[in-house]
Amino acid sequence: MSTNPKTTNDDSVPSNTVKDPDNWTTGDETMTGAQASYLKTLCEEAGEEFDASLSKADASKRIDALQGKTGRGKDH
User: Fold this and answer.
1) Residues 54, 31: contact at Cβ < 8 Å?
2) 13-51 pLDDT, tens per residue?
3) What contacts 62, CB < 8 A, 6 or more positions away?
4) Are 56 and 39 in contact (CB under 8 A)?
5) Closest CA to 65 of 51, 24, 23, 53
6) 3-state secondary structure at position 30
């Protein structure tokens, strides 16, 4: 029996559903509206400046960093 890494909840099996933003094919495009909205909220909560010029990839990295700082979002 094989394990499908896309559907497994087993942490020992690496997931291919999470890609490093540096490897996104559209990572250099302007961040999405959803990213901008969430990032703005996180920046306000963290007392940091919002940068509207970030790319999708950079916005994703910034969101991850601010989630860690604010305690929002995914567990760290």
Assistant:
1) yes
2) 555 567 788 777 776 889 999 999 999 999 999 999 999
3) 39, 42, 51, 54
4) no
5) 51
6) strand
